[in-house]
Structure formats: structure tokens, C-alpha cells
Amino acid sequence: MRDAPAFPSSITDVVDVELLRGDASRPDAAPDLLIEIPHGATRTVDFTRVEALLQSPLPDALVDFFHVNTDAGAPELALAVARRFVALEPSRSAAILRCRVPRTFMDCNRRIDASPEDFKAGKVTPGLMPWITAPDDRALLRARYDAYLGAVRAAVAATMPAGAMLMLHTYAPRTVDVEVDEHIVTNLRRAYEPAVEPTWPLRPEVDLIGRGLDGTSYLPLPVVDALKTAMSAVGVTVADGETYPLHPSTMAWDHATAWPGRTLCMEVRRDLVAEPFDPFVEMSIGEPKVDRLAAPLAEALRRWW
Fold first, then answer.
1. How far apart are the C-alpha atoms of 208 and 142, rounded to whole Å?
2. What is the reported pLDDT for 127?
3. Opening angle at CA 98, ends 297 and 207, nearest 5
4. Cβ contacts of 171 within 8 Å, gap of 6 or more
5. Cα(233)–Cα(235) distance, rounded to whole angstroms?
6. Which superfamily is assigned to 15-304 in CATH?
7. Directed axis angle between helix 287-301 and helix 74-88, to 10°?
8. Which residues of the chain, if any, have pLDDT below 50?
9. How far is CA 219 from CA 61, 165, 228, 252, 299, in A?
10. Burial class (CB within 10 angstroms; exposed 0-12, middle 13-18, buried 19+) of 274
């Protein structure tokens, strides 16, 4: 067993840190499994707390975009996976880092200095949203971004190289192609009209984001093979990079390329965990739905060891 370097602690309004240990694990051992949720600000209050601090003129009803764009269900799934993992592997431990910075304002899974063209090439939303124009707002959000990234780097340093990292996301069932600008809410409302929503492409139930633009895969193949088999047994299909690539404009790229084969970035379709899926509200997450996915995922993650 490894001795644990300094592991980060929770920071109010920035990151929640939770450590779960198996019954036979050493209390001073470094985590074996690190689960990062970079879009973990999923509650309406996460949005309103930051909104109240900002001076920038924000689009009307921006909270609607917050609900559409945040990873509802990811925190609940992460906790269920961690609990099952340490139950299956009592000598091991799992840590969860949940970001509480709403990506509606600043995305902590983005390289902030990347160009708009880079984000578009990666099929991802920007790091700093275009409606954040006041210098004080940018300073506040950048401080929280830096604090979050500092916590993630410390956690990775404590976990690697013997440990492994799961970067967990959820996404809307369909790829809705709208411009991220001051008209975002109006355009989203139109895109989700009952006659329009079914026309958008349906996304895979689970998609593994681990291939670069040149097709190079950084995925842990034994885990991937086990995951496909285990998910198939519960009626869930797993795709390999069908939605978008692993792109250098994201922080996930840094982790995957620094530790090839020791990280797994994955998207879970939100209707698989929400009861029901409703894009414009704080969704209720169904425990039976989460457990259905957590069991095969935790079983597959054991293949790392």
C-alpha cells in the first residue's frame, strides 16, 4: 500500500471532496480510484448563489440554460459507484471530487486560454461564457476555477500512478445544436419544442470519450471491454467516441494523455438517471436507475487492478 500525499479538502462553493474507504483499507492510504465530476454544480442554488454575485448583464432566464447544460445525475451516480467499488474491493478506497462552479459561467473542464475555434472543433461549449463581461466577475470566477484545478491536480498527484481516474459526465439525450450567445435561452426553448426536439440526433446511452482528433485511443481497454459486457447485461449500450472527441481544449485531455490507460472519461445519457428527464428544471434522480448503472460500472472498474 502507498502512503498518501496531501489530499485536497472541500472548498466552499468550489469543490466537495468525499473519501470512501473499504472495510479493510488503510486509513492513511492514498485513494485507489479518483472520480472527478467537473460539472457537478447541478442544483438550482448552485446557479443562484453565483448569479447574485455577478455584475455582468446576463441573458434573461439563464437558469434554463444552466439546467440544460449541467450534468444532472453525475454526483449521485459517482457516489453509488464509489460505494459499490469499495464494497467489492474492501482493501481499496475511492475519492470523489465534485465541482460546485456552474459551467453556465465558467467551465472547469476547459482550458480557459483556448480559442473559440478550438472549442467549436472539440464540439464543446466555451470555458468562460460570453455574457461574463465585468472584470470583477471574471476575477471571481477565475479564482474559483484556479482553486478547483488546484484541488484536482493535488488529488491526481495523490492517486497516480498506481491508482486510476474516472471523469464522469451526463449529457442530454439529443445533440441540440444551438449557438452559445446572448440568445441561448430563446434558441434552446425553440429547440426543445415538442415538434422539434425529436428531430435532433439521439446520443448513445453511454459514450466513452477517449479518442483524440487523430483517432488515438487513451482508454483502458480491459476496463472498456468489461464495461461493454457488464452494461450489455443490463440492456445498456456503450459507444466509443461517437458524440465528440477527446479534445485538447478540455482538461480531460490533460489527464488522459498524462496517464494513458489509467483514466476513463464517460458520458451517461441523462434520461437513464432522471425521473423524468426535463431539460429546464432541477431534475429528480432515480435511485433504482442509478443503481442499475452503478453496479456494472463498479464491476468494470475493478479490471484496473
1. 29
2. 85
3. 40
4. 71, 203, 207, 243, 267, 268, 269, 270
5. 6
6. Zn-dependent exopeptidases (3.40.630.40)
7. 50
8. 1-2, 119, 121-123
9. 39, 11, 13, 12, 17
10. buried
Given a contact cutoff of 8 angstroms between Cβ atoms, the answer to whether 114 and 120 are in contact is: no
Residue 182 is placed in which grid cell?
A: 446572448
Residue 142 makes CB contacts below 8 A (sequence gap 6+) with: 106, 112
pLDDT of residue 119: 47
Residue spans of the domains in the chain: they are 15-304
At 99, which helix (H) or strand (E)? strand 93-99
What does DSSP assign to residue 55? -
pLDDT for the residue 113: 76
Q: What is the pLDDT of residue 109?
A: 96
Contact 106, 157 (CB under 8 A): no
Phi, psi of 267 (to 5 degrees): -110, 135
**pLDDT of the residue at 1:** 42
Instruction: Note whether 90 and 171 are within 8 A (CB).
Output: no
